[in-house]
């Protein structure tokens, strides 16, 4: 193949090398297993750069692990805020670690902690799948959630709408 992508046909190795040198470029073997082997006349430095660029593009962006910490006696509003944050993380493609921490005498009623973690799992079921089931380790219960594919995600807890002074939705000056 020529430098512009045109096919030059089957030729001897010496002819191909001579043609590449006359153009001031290199002869690069593209498909060595083909019969006959396919070579291309290109600048070798640019060729290597293009290949490295292609391999970088193929690597998927690794998802980060975000953590949400709960306590057993969490208030409903605080719970909704944390679940909303969890949804946001999952929506961005990050994994979420749900950690429930016990303090003092709360350890005597670990079943309440398990109920809360199950509630979080159920509330985020439309956005995630359980990667690691809830597990008690010391004074913590930990569970890891992985995001569902983007086309299967369904948000349940949308962020609250901003309201004006009289409890009506805020209107910007451009809309007035």
Write the layout of secondary structure elements.
Layout: H1 13-23, E1 26-31, E2 38-42, H2 44-58, E3 65-71, H3 76-91, E4 95-101, H4 110-123, E5 128-137, E6 140-147
Parallel strand pairs: 3-4
Antiparallel strand pairs: 1-2, 4-6, 5-6
Brief characterization of the structure:
It is built from four helices and six strands, in the order αββαβαβαββ. The chain is of the alpha+beta class.
Textual characterization of the structure:
There is one protein chain. The chain is α+β, with helices and mostly antiparallel strands and 176 residues long. It has two domains: 46 residues, Ubiquitin-like (UB roll) (Roll); 88 residues, Translation Initiation Factor IF3. 32% of the residues lie in helices and 24% in strands. It contains four helices and six strands; from the N terminus they run αββαβαβαββ. The longest helix has 16 residues. It is rod-shaped, with a radius of gyration of 29 Å.
Averaged pLDDT, please?
Answer: 81
Distance between the termini: 63 Å
What general form does the structure show? rod-shaped
CATH topology of the largest domain: Translation Initiation Factor IF3
| Strand line-up across the major sheet | 3-4-6-5
How much of the sequence lies in strands comes to 15-25%
Q: Architecture of the largest domain, CATH level 2?
A: 2-Layer Sandwich
According to CATH, the homologous superfamily of the largest domain is Translation initiation factor 3 (IF-3), C-terminal domain
Give the tally of structural domains.
2
Radius of gyration: 29 Å
Low-confidence region ranges: none
Number of helices: 4
Order of helices and strands: HEEHEHEHEE
Main sheet: strands, sense, barrel: 4 strands, mixed
Query: What is the β-strand count?
Result: 6
CATH class of the largest domain: Alpha Beta
The residue fraction in helices comes out at 25-40%
Helix/strand structural class: alpha+beta
